[in-house]
Structures are given as structure tokens and as C-alpha cells.
Amino acid sequence: MAFRYPNGKKYVNNTQNTPKKRSQNISYSNRGMSLEKDLNETNEYYRSRGVAVIHKKPTPLQIVDVDYPRRSAAVVTEAYFKKPSTTDYNGVYRGYHIDFEAKETKNKQSFPLKNFHEHQIEHMQRVLQQGGIAFAILRFTAVDETYFLSAEHLCSFYMHRQNERKSIPKSEIEEKGHLIPVGLHPRINYLKILDQIISNE
Amino acid sequence: MAFRYPNGKKYVNNTQNTPKKRSQNISYSNRGMSLEKDLNETNEYYRSRGVAVIHKKPTPLQIVDVDYPRRSAAVVTEAYFKKPSTTDYNGVYRGYHIDFEAKETKNKQSFPLKNFHEHQIEHMQRVLQQGGIAFAILRFTAVDETYFLSAEHLCSFYMHRQNERKSIPKSEIEEKGHLIPVGLHPRINYLKILDQIISNE
């Protein structure tokens, strides 16, 4: 189940419960879900083996109204999606603070920068200033390629290219980033890439 | 505005928008809000001065239904509160991963351990294992005293005392923890306490 955010971004409900189908205009496309699902499984793998403690943050909602049925759980009956002010994923690995955003595109030749909010870029820069590790995980769904791109490179692209082209050419992501091999367990072993980067520093 | 979680915990809507008052059984008590508000202001102070990047995570909700009015923003019309599986606050400070939970009690002599979920305690232990810094900020509202208690002590209390007394005596928090002086800017300078702990190690 996928539906649109006010900003055009898809919200994807990837829980086990089957949602009731009352709403209109719902797209049942599964697109946009697979990267998040892969990362959730990867993070669960890391946690269960004591490799790292990294979680996806809950979707930020502005809660306006809540009902209390007599014999059942409280129900939020009115809430609105808010723009996230931070990245979606963070946690700790080998003493390092880890902070990242994950995005996919159907584009084949470039990654649109509109996928990132300005607040998220600012957040990544603040994290770097505090000595944390920040990056993006970018997937080109058409070719099923997933890249690790450091926040240093992402922020540099964002700052210098936003007015010109509003996207990062795939060739530059291939050059500055790192292709993450897709596996079974874990699906997207991004910490292996991080290990290589840390050991090369 | 404050209302009850299914688990008895209060949900506090601390946003600028005034919520519509349609729900029943709402308690308008402001209790339970002040510590969160103080911490949000403190974290905003830290961020604005480049001291640290620490955020409160959004309230975890299970979204079940969303409506799309034609000319306005998407509205979540059915959602349920979920138990948090992590602590509420995390971020990065001087290269350290910071992870903490904040709770208040009206009790005068002890802090009830039922305020902490088992998942949160396990999460703190995992964070410690990864070399992160984890702690609790505990407020006794009756005397307006706020303490910094390391996760090492909190987890030890939780593991050994849960079946016996299900609370931590205030005297032990005074002994093992650190009283945080309440100021104006920032309101709760918990990183100052952390600095002292780090420099004493």
C-alpha cells in the first residue's frame, strides 16, 4: 500500500497489519518500498548479531485529534504528515554516530536532488561538524543498483548543482560513491562499504 | 493538551497549532509536558549554537487509513500508538553517539521502573555495547529536581530491582546520578554533566 505525501513523496505502510481500504486515490504500486524494506531487514540483521544499532525513525505526524473508545486502544483520528527535519535513519556502530537518508529513483541517468529537503542537507552538515558519519543510500530502481554516497559529496552536489541541473548525474555517483553489492543476509551491507572508507582514511 | 496512551502513558501535543477539541476524556493537565518541552528547547539551543545535534524522535504510530481531500493535504484518519522500541532522544555530540530517555514522576521518594519499557532498556544496552553514550534524564516534579543517570546504573537497577521493588529509591538516584542545575538557556544543560563524566573517565 502506497499513498502520496502532500509534497508528492510516497508514504509506504510496510507493516504486517493489512490496512483497511477506505481511502480514495490509493496507488497500490509497490515501488518505493523495496529500499526501505531492504534497509529495515539489513538493520534488523545488524541488531540481531550485535553488529550495529541503527533504526529508521518513525514518520513525523502532527497529531490533531484522538478518540478513546471505551474498551479498546486510543485511535488517532486526525493527523497530518510533516516534513522530516532530519534523516530517516540513525544509530551507532563501533562507536561512530551513523546518520543517513535512503532514496530511490526511476531515472536511469541521474538522481533528482528534489528528493532531499534542504533541512535534511543542513542536518547532515551538522552531523559531520559534530564528528558523526553521514551519507545517503541511493537506488536506481531501473537497473537495481544501490550506491553509498558520503554526505560530503551529496552536500557538495546539492550546494553547487541545485540551481543548474537539480540532479546528480549517475556517472558522478559511480565515480564519487560506492556500489553496494546486494546480498541475501544482509540485503544491503552498507556497513562493509563504511568499513572500507574508514580503513582507507 | 494531554491524553492517555493505551499503556497509561500520556501523549502530549506540544506544537503551536491548537488541536480541535472533539475528543472525549481529554485531561487538560499540563503535567508530563514540561520536561519534554525543556529538553526540546535545550536541544534547539545546542543545535543553534553548533554544540550538538540531538533530536526527539517522532511518536511511533501505526497508520491504518489516510484520506486525500481534493485541494488540501493528506489526512491520516486512523492510526494507533505503538510502543517505542528505542529511546526518545538521540544524536551526536563531539563525535559521541548520544542516546537517552526522559521521564518524570510525581512520586517523592522513588522513581517507578514501569516508566521504562523492556525494549528501551535492551536498546540502551545495545548502544553501550556499540560504544555509544546512553543515559536517562529523570525528573521529580514535586521537588522540581532533574537527574542525569547513566544507562549502566539504570540497567543495573532495572535488572536487579524490577521484581523486588519496581522502583529506584531517590536516594540511590542522588548517589549514583547527577543533579542537573536548571537554567534559562539552556534549560537543562545535560551535556555539561556529560562533559564532567567524560573528563573524569
UniProtKB/TrEMBL annotation, chains A, B:
It is an enzyme of class 3 (hydrolase). GO terms for cellular component: cytoplasm. Mg(2+) binds at T86, D88, E101, Q120. It is found in: Cytoplasm. Its EC number is 3.1.21.10. Residues 1-34 are annotated as: Disordered. Binds 1 Mg(2+) ion per subunit. This is Holliday junction resolvase RecU. It comes from Texcoconibacillus texcoconensis. The gene is recU.
